[in-house]
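Section 3.1: Structural characterization of target chains.
Under the original work plan, the team committed to producing a structural model for every single-chain target entering the pipeline before any wet-lab resources were allocated. The record below documents one such target. The sequence was received from the expression subgroup and is listed exactly as submitted; it comprises 344 residues.
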Amino acid sequence: MEIAWFKKIRKPKQPVEHKRMQVPEGLWVKCNGCKEIIYKKEVLRNANVCPKCNYHFRISARERLSALFDDGRYQEVDTDIYSVDPLKFRDMKPYRDRLREYREKTGLNDAVINGRGTLGGIQVMMAVMEYGFMGSAVGEKVTRAIERALDERIPLVVISCSGGARMQEGVLSLMQMAKIGAALGKLHHAGVPYVSILTDPTTGGVTASFAMLGDLNIAEPKALIGFAGPRVIEQTIREKLPDEFQRSEFLVEHGMLDFIVERREMRDVLVRCLKFMFNAEAMAAAAPSAASAAETGTGSASDGVSSGQGTAASARPRRAREPLPFPTPFAARSKITTPTPEIT
């Protein structure tokens, strides 16, 4: 029998079962700014902002509400408003089917959420848009948010993120621009602060109406803001547009925005701005007098003093003033000064 002193007998290798490693989906995200692959939890910890290039990822309306309100708590209002199909519009598919798909995808009746809550201890009405299009229901909900802020005399904050008006709703959609603008005019006349926050992207009829009408217009970094897109403008004017055209930095340099705020600092900046712009005690004191003045009409100063409700300024004696004569029309003056020719 041969003894294998210098020979090693190897056992045959057993076949190894190849097991595919299951990597869970959604662990990594690709940044649209620097094109790097980033760990998703790291992005979430950074308020959905790329830690390498500061690119701001798009987030949902509910995420914005939870990030801004105190303790992430708010009361959602106007939940029973939704878009319909008044024109029975059909292109590649019926508009009614598109609305159904959108509601199933987002869980919302339309592309805006109205919420009431506190921001730094200040009662605030907030309307936040989910990325979509401005239809008739969106315009109605934004208008109702403005009216609630006006009735309750609390600041209004609108966060815009939209691509414009829905052509499927025709003129009903375009009418929302004028309706919201008229409501904001009443809010401005009452002295209630309105802060507009523009995110990426804010274009079309939203930019042409309420997004640029704020007492303060704030934007996130690198946000696309404009009416028509850059590609459409280049094809129309047949010229090369400047770098960073229609971005928030470009608009700040040209006076279209007040300042740019990063998402991580947005809440603190809003609290400081509202405390500077809003005086709850003065607003509450002015609200009844404004309502009574609207009901009773404009009265004389003596009426206010005699009733005991006049201010200190109205109680002081005033010099009697004669009413100014109403100016004579130019045509009437010419008739008076020009002598009538005698007929012989």
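Strands lie at 28-30, 37-39, 75-77, 112-119, 122-129, 132-134, 156-165, 194-202, 216-219, 259-260.
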